[in-house]
Amino acid sequence: MIGDTGEAGVRRRMPHARRREQLLQVALAEFGRRGYHLTQMEHVAAAARVSKALLYQHFSSKEELFAEVTEAIVGELTGRLNEAVLAAHGSADGIRAMIRVLFDYATAEPDAWALVVRHLDKPEVGLELRELRDRLGTAFADLLLRRRRADPALSQAALEVNEHRARLLVPLMYGSMLSMVSWWLEHPDTPRERAEQMAVEFIWLGLDRLRAGERLPRE
Amino acid sequence: MIGDTGEAGVRRRMPHARRREQLLQVALAEFGRRGYHLTQMEHVAAAARVSKALLYQHFSSKEELFAEVTEAIVGELTGRLNEAVLAAHGSADGIRAMIRVLFDYATAEPDAWALVVRHLDKPEVGLELRELRDRLGTAFADLLLRRRRADPALSQAALEVNEHRARLLVPLMYGSMLSMVSWWLEHPDTPRERAEQMAVEFIWLGLDRLRAGERLPRE
DNA sequence: CCGAAGTAACTGACTGGTCAGTTACTCTAG
DNA sequence: CTAGAGTAACTGACCAGTCAGTTACTTCGG
């Protein structure tokens, strides 16, 4: 009870760095819930139990605040994905690992996830969140190609054809994963295990068969 | 100089209905390019070479205008998709048809397409564009299940298991299709034929193998 | 055919509210 | 007692929505 805590034991005065962290956290939640345009600096300040002016002592503009928030998310998520892919043994393994990372993240950080899917395709907010999409795309492509690049039996030309095909596969994998996670969040009655498994199988099978050169049969 | 044409022979005064159509068209373009929040009524009016006040004689609010625009898009697109699916013979055929519709639409109506992908996951604008996603989902599920529903050899129980699996497949198909179209729009050097074909094969193969009960092999 | 009366399309200039960003100040921990 | 954490109150720009009036077109009595 002694010291700088207000009622309910909430710390009122904080050192600069700690306050900054708290503000970022609160801003993430607000942006995630309402989206960029409907979130006012006032909202962020109020949610942090702080005045708007103080917020401006930490971040020079709304855009900067948003950029900082998204940067943290992008860094975190791509980091986890890369890690997962690197630890994986085969490509089925890699796919499962990536999907698991996405489900984990969406579950643990729903606001961050909402922010990501909401703003992924909007050029409007200065700092590009589309970057995330591209970085994810790169991670996917790497995963697809790692084994083949290491294969000495493949000629340079064959490898290039493969790269091109792989690049076309990226948006397909990418889109279906994100879409599945979003769908599952809105259908919590479906066991996560099933949703995850379905995604892994769908993507892996489509992928593997294509890699094997299988083609569409005429019906 | 005489009559109701301005310079360059552009008709200035129009009958109510025609003006309304023009305004909707212009609004679609503006919303598609800038997104809802960054589009001002002023912009729409200016693009139509008309005063803001006139715009308000046709649409009572910004939200209403937006709702009317999206409704038209949703109607058009779902109509085309249903038509395509109904005309298809098998499910591979149906998938190809749907993908073709999406590519056609995105090519022919880039602004409408931009509007759709941009606002698909935003609860913020009163009238739900998410409805489109759901309607599309329904169309997909129907496509997947049509044949099986008609199969008298399947028991009711087996059918229900299938329905459940099919519902899980919808977001996967849906997400990969939309994602592929968006990707292709940003990579115009890739021949549309290739992008389309890749999507068809990826989706159909994943689908077909799952239907056949194939499982993930251990690597 | 003509012109005045009527009407629908249209506009410029305004208002009220909102919100990013600022200023000038107070308070307290160390 | 002071630096820096904090705030209340303010400003200026912007923008959805309105209103009082103007202009182009139609109609109809003569």
Structure characterization notes:
Two copies of one chain form a homodimer. Chain A has 219 residues and is an all-alpha fold. Chain A is built from nine helices and no strands. Chain A has helices at residues 16-34, 41-47, 52-58, 62-87, 91-108, 110-119, 130-150, 156-186, 192-211. In chain A, helix 5 packs antiparallel against helix 9 (192-211). Chain A is elongated, with a radius of gyration of 22 Å. The structure holds a DNA duplex (30 and 30 nucleotides). Chains A, B: Residues 40-59 bind DNA. Chains A, B: Keywords: DNA-binding.
Keywords summarizing the entry:
homodimer, 219 residues, mainly alpha, 9 helices, elongated, disordered N terminus, DNA-binding
Distance between the termini of chain A: 76 Å
Per DSSP E runs of 2 or more residues, the count of β-strands of chain A stands at 0
Poorly predicted ranges of chain A (pLDDT <50, ≥5 residues)? 1-11
From the spread of the alpha carbons, the general shape of chain A counts as: elongated
* H/I helix tally of chain A: 9
Mean pLDDT score of chain A, rounded? 83
Describe the secondary-structure layout.
The structure is a homodimer of 219-residue chains.
Chain A: H1 16-34, H2 41-47, H3 52-58, H4 62-87, H5 91-108, H6 110-119, H7 130-150, H8 156-186, H9 192-211
Helix pairs in contact in A: 1-2, 1-4, 1-6, 2-3, 4-5, 4-7, 5-6, 5-8, 5-9, 7-8, 8-9
Chain A binds a DNA duplex (30 and 30 nucleotides) through residues 3-4, 12-16, 19, 40-42, 50-54, 56-57, 60-62.
